[in-house]
């Protein structure tokens, strides 16, 4: 392609020289009308003018890439067409397009004030801005797009001198953007006292904040906000879903566990609930991992697993007990209370029956006592006669 050859011949895509002249000397000669012979330098001069290269004592402070034929404005790197930066490719994509089969690497600002412009305006640029934030600054009203010329490759943006820190598209169906960093992702604001915030969606309703004021005031840790709530879901082949583990206190106005009949099958009552409850033992305890001003109360997962394994969460590696699903114990407690109420009702019925029997015996005793009195009186009268 003529664009690529021209840029490469000028030495901007490598260290190539035309004849014995450096790129800067060549441009000076062309601007002064001293055009060497033997190559189509008039065409070269036309392209130089179209590129609008601005010089300052032999230094190129900025470079503008424009196709004089009105085609895509693209800057190619290397001996092939695989690595390039440009706008308006034949595919019709908008914004600044970067192509590289092995990804892009951004390094520290070692060329202060250097700017690369794409297109006929100053809207699409790549630069290191000495008057603003450090690092590489990309400007484009249509956004910046990274493409991999290899159809099987993944577009990737790399940060730093290694491949450990990078941003790429998902490498499997259903996976979007992936951020790689061995030390994790740190989102922070430079404004003192304000919360660092990561927002999702076109509005500011859904975000994650840290280091700011909480809903009740006071500095808090992570703060999740979503008017529709949060859904943590990643079922495996067995239907097991994501585990959310929190080390510390969880405060909420309400916890709701799915329990619709439409979601359940193999429904059957809990039998012998009182016996199961009788085998459980509540205990006082303290956590080994932290100090607490007062003792805690609860159950021991290993003990509950022997009685109600359905109410115990097991580890994924060796299946040992690690936690208790206290909500599941409510059903057992309800059946236990019902069984106990049946026992109480039976005892009440037995009590009534016993009271009735006592009353019957009391009446019989009263009748016997009356007859005894009659017999006693009859015997006394007989003895006197």
Mean pLDDT: 74
Say how many strands there are: 20
Distance between the termini: 156 Å
Q: Beta-sheet strand percentage? A: 15-25%
| Shape estimate | rod-shaped
Largest sheet: 5 strands, mixed
Helix content: 25-40%
How many helices? The count is 6
The radius of gyration computed from the alpha-carbon positions, rounded to a whole number of angstroms, is 42 Å
Element-level helix/strand string: HHHEEEEEEEEEEEEEEEEHEEHEEH
Low-confidence stretches: 1-24, 37-41, 51-61, 106-113
Counting helices, strands and paired strands, the structural category is alpha+beta
Strands of the widest sheet, in order across it, are 1-2-7-8-9
Detailed description of the structure:
With 385 residues, this protein is α+β, with helices and mostly antiparallel strands. Among the domains are: 52-180, no CATH class; 267-385, no CATH class. Helices cover 26% and strands 22% of the residues. The protein is built from 6 helices and 20 strands. The strands form 6 sheets. The chain has a 5-stranded mixed sheet, with no helix packed on it. Strand 14 (196-200) and strand 15 form a beta hairpin. Helix 4 crosses helix 6. The longest helix has 59 residues, at 326-384. The radius of gyration is 42 Å and the shape is rod-shaped. The protein starts with a helix and ends with a helix. Mean pLDDT is 74; it is low at 1-24, 37-41, 51-61 and 106-113.
